[in-house]
Design goal:
This protein is mainly beta and 263 residues long. It has 3 helices and 12 strands; from the N terminus they run H-E-E-E-E-E-E-E-E-E-H-E-E-H-E. The two termini are 29 Å apart.
């Protein structure tokens, strides 16, 4: 799974680097375009801490590339998401396009409540995306369809980004997210099939539900073109997810730390 993530990011970069970075004369607030604050294209590497399995209270550490960049002011990469803007307002503060996002699976043997189950596979979501920047912050929305065939599910993600600190060296954004996942998505990642049951793990079919996420992301300039990136978030699982017998805790934390170079 880790190799699949890296190959996904490399393939996206290879397809976009033929385009040179260019920023139009617009009114885009670059530092709140995404949850990670930036004013230049960033390329680096970092480590992420995330739950081992769905709802786990144990953690795994992954080394991942960190890319947050625009290409030709039309294509973009934001961590494990990549997309293209197709329609813009005159000032480019309202944009509509398509985006694809990598979604982690997990190895059942890694979790104390999932041992003996089938693994959940790495996959990709694809769907329409909207970004609306206002004087109060940035609003992002995406409707994603699992095109990798893991869950065959759908998700609707809404995100609000607000800048908290905008100093010369230190920048910090806060984000608030609401994610709706349909029954196919939830049942794949949180359900227990008839062939996956045990004495302590009954069969479970998860329906659709809504998650809530709160996060903070920052950057600190070490020099003119080098930055330390960091962030943390916590997700509150929906009732359908939290009631699963494989869920140990409803609150799911995430954190990362990385180093990047501006280009």
């Amino acid at each position: 799974m880790k190799n699949s993530v890296i190959l996904y990011v490399i393939s996206v970069v290879a397809g976009l680097t033929i385009l040179s970075p260019a920023y139009a004369n617009d009114k885009i607030d670059r530092e709140t375009e995404t949850a990670i604050p930036r004013s230049k294209n960033l390329y680096g590497i970092g480590v992420a801490l995330l739950p081992k399995t769905s709802g786990s209270d144990e953690f795994r550490v992954l080394a991942l590339p960190i890319i947050n960049a625009n290409y030709g002011d039309r294509f973009y990469i934001n961590a494990l998401q990549a997309g293209v803007w197709l329609l813009d307002s005159d000032d480019k503060r309202l944009r509509v396009g398509m985006a694809t996002q990598a979604r982690f699976g997990w190895d059942a043997a890694d979790g104390k409540l999932t041992r003996g189950m089938n693994n959940r596979d790495f996959t990709l979501d694809l769907g329409p995306a909207v970004r609306w920047q206002t004087q109060y912050g940035t609003f992002n929305a995406q409707w994603g369809f699992d095109i990798g065939g893991a869950s065959n599910g759908q998700t609707v993600e809404l995100q609000y980004i607000k800048n908290l600190i905008r100093a010369d060296k230190f920048k910090l954004n806060a984000s608030l997210g609401v994610n709706w996942n349909n029954n196919k998505f939830n049942n794949y990642y949180f359900g227990v099939g008839a062939n996956e049951t045990s004495q302590l793990r009954p069969a479970y079919a998860a329906g659709s539900g809504t998650e809530f996420k709160l996060g903070a992301n920052g950057s600190y300039a070490l020099g003119k073109d080098s930055f330390v990136l960091f962030g943390t978030a916590v997700t509150r699982l929906s009732d359908e997810q939290a009631n699963s017998p494989i869920v140990a805790t409803r609150m799911q934390p995430f954190a990362y730390l990385g180093y990047s170079i501006a280009y």
